[in-house]
Write a structure and sequence with these properties.
The protein starts with a helix and ends with a strand. The protein is an alpha+beta fold and about 220 residues long. The chain has helices at about 1-20, 20-30, 35, 40-50, 85, 155-170, and strands at about 55-65, 65-70, 75-80, 95-105, 110-115, 120-125, 130-135, 140, 150, 155, 180-185, 190-195, 210, 215-220. Belongs to the staphylococcal/streptococcal toxin family. This is Putative exotoxin.
């Protein structure tokens, strides 16, 4: 229920913040009311099944309390993220990578997502090489996959979580046969990022980290 309510409320808040039109938010509310009557796994599956887009090495042109703007070709791209402390890390003219799910595509493209500093690695690698997957206590191999590709030294927790869960949804029946668990990212400096697979990762949890500092990733599905 927590995941369903979070998904609906943040969708409404997002549209009100971006558009300023209550009528549009009410229209979306009507379209998403079905999420409330479905079980939590349906909501999680729908959320993590979304397609996402990535823009690489783009210049920041504006920063608000809950968004970052950048120019991509002829479009202004706005990335909405409700985490003021995280957004304070960026400034105009920074070069960033943008990741997000598309919410509006008119005069501007508006994404719900995140950004990280542009810092490419010399050779593309894969999260699978550092990931251990346990399904009902039994270890299962994680194969290299495009969803798990790493091309930038700086990674965001939000994008990493989304990519891994989308992989698990497509390859390991997450939210079909397995409804709960944890995703734990262990860092070489002793820091640990723990994500509840039974809930959507909130914007308040967003942070970035260096790929080279990842020791390993443990996933427990049950």
């Amino acid at each position: 229920m927590k995941a369903k309510l979070w998904f609906l409320l943040t969708t409404l808040a997002f549209l009100i913040a971006v558009t300023g039109f209550i009528g549009i938010a009410e229209e979306v509310k009507a379209k998403t009311n079905g999420l409330i009557t479905e079980n939590g796994n349906d909501s999680l599956k729908e959320y993590y099944a979304q397609n996402f887009e990535v823009y690489t090495n783009k210049e920041v042109t504006g920063i608000g309390t809950n968004y970052i703007d950048a120019k991509v070709d002829t479009y202004n791209v706005r990335t909405v993220l409700y985490n003021t402390d995280y957004l304070k890390r960026f400034k105009n003219q920074d070069r960033v990578n943008i990741w997000g799910t598309l919410y509006e595509n008119q005069q501007s493209k508006v994404y719900r997502g995140t950004v990280v500093k542009y810092d490419p690695i010399s050779k593309v690698t894969n999260l699978s090489y550092r990931t251990n997957l346990f399904v009902n206590g039994h270890q299962t191999k994680v194969n290299p996959d495009k969803l798990l590709e790493v091309k930038n030294k700086q990674l965001s927790l939000k994008e990493t979580d989304f990519r891994i869960r989308k992989y698990l949804l497509e390859k390991e029946q997450l939210y079909d046969n397995y409804n709960s668990g944890e995703l734990i990212i262990e860092m070489k400096n002793g820091e640990r990022h723990t994500i509840d697979l039974g809930d959507i990762l909130s914007d308040s949890q967003e942070k970035s980290f260096d790929f080279d500092n990842i020791s390993h990733i443990d996933i427990y599905m049950k």
